């Protein structure tokens, strides 16, 4: 294996992240902060250490992941290894507000008001125990968002030295444009679900826009939440409908021919796209985290890439 994973700049920024990112969503081992135990925290700590040692230098987090516990676990490791902060890029997200906050009757919702963005970002900084977030993303589009208000919040956070660069997640391309036209700084990443089981980004304009605007796409659930791999611990509702059996035989055939694992091929398939997709690895198993990093060494041929696309579509190309 390469000693160090390759890095690429995030969008047009000077921030360099590893070719694959480590995702912190599952770090606490549960979605419910009441269920977090010293043992589950320790497993999360070991996962972060495994990722760091395997060469991941881009860590993806969010305030909503186990209601801040995932940020706390990452923050504790950053404190334990002071040299780590300078070597890694910390990305986190805000804008989703859980039900029951601040009033018991409040529904789960999205909130891109300047007041909430700034507050959420400051809370993330505290939990992570850092001075500056490298990349701050808006997690899911707020139907009531006002682009000028978001731009104002971003400027305030940047001027205060609290955030270096900004990005979005799960936006439609038109909404990215609506924000970018009023935002004084370039959006550097767009995080969306992309995998052999979820092909939308290739055809809905998301990756085209990333190429045009120089935005780096980050692929969440690159292994379809575990459906491509040794199994899924917890799937999102939409992922329950995925049919990986359509493409697993093609994936396994290429893996066998190349002498690598199915995981390596599935991730290398994402890496091969010219928009420089960064897969965000969600495993908390150190061996799986290391295995995923091997995709950085595999370059698929055009023929292999298309064989997988056709299998994933479940029908020939027109
Ligand atoms: N922006 C958004 O809206 C959004 C939404 C969801 C996720 N995300 C981000 O994307 C990251 C990844 O999402 P995800 O966790 O669904 O990704 P994923 O990598 O598709 O799925 C991870 C799951 O696959 C399982 N898995 C089984 N075999 C594996 C193998 N050989 N190698 C690796 N994993 C294997 C893992 O279990 P083990 O732990 O046992 O390996 C884990 O439960 C999250 O951590 C988060 O940072 C963002």
Structural overview:
The chain has twelve helices and twelve strands. The protein is α/β, with parallel strands linked by helices and 318 residues long. Helix 6 (173-180) links the parallel strand 9 (163-169) and strand 10. The mean pLDDT is 96. Bound molecules: NADP nicotinamide-adenine-dinucleotide phosphate. NADP nicotinamide-adenine-dinucleotide phosphate (NAP) binds next to strand 12 and helix 11.
Task: Please outline what is shown here.
The protein has helices at 38-53, 69-80, 84-87, 114-128, 147-159, 173-180, 200-203, 206-213, 248-258, 262-271, 286-293, 302-313; strands at 7-9, 16-18, 21-23, 58-60, 89-94, 96-97, 109-110, 133-138, 163-169, 187-193, 216-220, 278-281.
Show the helix and strand layout.
Blueprint: E1 7-9, E2 16-18, E3 21-23, H1 38-53, E4 58-60, H2 69-80, H3 84-87, E5 89-94, E6 96-97, E7 109-110, H4 114-128, E8 133-138, H5 147-159, E9 163-169, H6 173-180, E10 187-193, H7 200-203, H8 206-213, E11 216-220, H9 248-258, H10 262-271, E12 278-281, H11 286-293, H12 302-313
Parallel strand pairs: 3-4, 3-12, 4-5, 5-8, 8-9, 9-10, 10-11, 11-12
Antiparallel strand pairs: 1-2, 6-7
Helix pairs in contact: 1-2, 1-11, 4-5, 9-10, 9-12
The structure holds NADP nicotinamide-adenine-dinucleotide phosphate (NAP).
The site of NADP nicotinamide-adenine-dinucleotide phosphate (NAP) has 31 residues, from strand 12 and helix 11.
């Amino acid at each position: 294996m390469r000693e160090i994973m390759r890095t690429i700049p995030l969008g047009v920024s000077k921030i360099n992240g590893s070719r694959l990112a480590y995702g912190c969503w599952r770090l606490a081992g549960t979605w419910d902060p009441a269920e977090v135990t010293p043992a589950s925290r320790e497993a999360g700590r070991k996962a972060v250490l495994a990722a760091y040692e395997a060469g991941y230098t881009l860590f993806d987090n969010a305030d909503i992941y186990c209601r801040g516990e995932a940020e706390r676990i990452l923050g504790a490791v950053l404190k334990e290894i002071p040299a780590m902060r300078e070597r890694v890029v910390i990305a986190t997200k805000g804008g989703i507000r859980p039900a029951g906050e601040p009033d018991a009757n409040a529904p789960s919702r999205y909130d891109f008001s300047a007041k909430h963005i700034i507050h959420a970002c400051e809370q993330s900084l505290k939990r992570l125990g850092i001075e500056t977030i490298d990349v701050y993303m808006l997690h899911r589009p707020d139907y009531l968002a006002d682009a000028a208000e978001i731009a104002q919040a971003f400027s305030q956070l940047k001027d205060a030295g609290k955030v270096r660069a900004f990005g979005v997640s799960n936006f439609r391309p038109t909404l990215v444009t609506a924000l970018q036209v009023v935002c004084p700084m370039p959006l550097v990443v767009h995080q969306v679900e992309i995998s052999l089981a979820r092909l939308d980004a290739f055809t809905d304009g998301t990756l085209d826009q990333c190429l045009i605007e120089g935005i780096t796409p980050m692929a969440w659930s690159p292994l379809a939440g575990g459906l491509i791999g040794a199994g899924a611990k917890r799937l999102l509702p939409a992922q329950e409908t995925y049919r990986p059996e359509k493409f697993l035989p093609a994936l396994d055939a290429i893996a066998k021919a190349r002498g690598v694992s199915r995981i390596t091929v599935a991730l290398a398939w994402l890496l091969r796209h010219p928009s420089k997709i960064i897969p965000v690895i969600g495993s908390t198993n150190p061996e799986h985290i290391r295995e995923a990093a091997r995709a950085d060494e595999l370059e698929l041929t055009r023929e292999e890439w298309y064989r997988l696309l056709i299998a994933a579509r479940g029908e020939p190309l027109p």
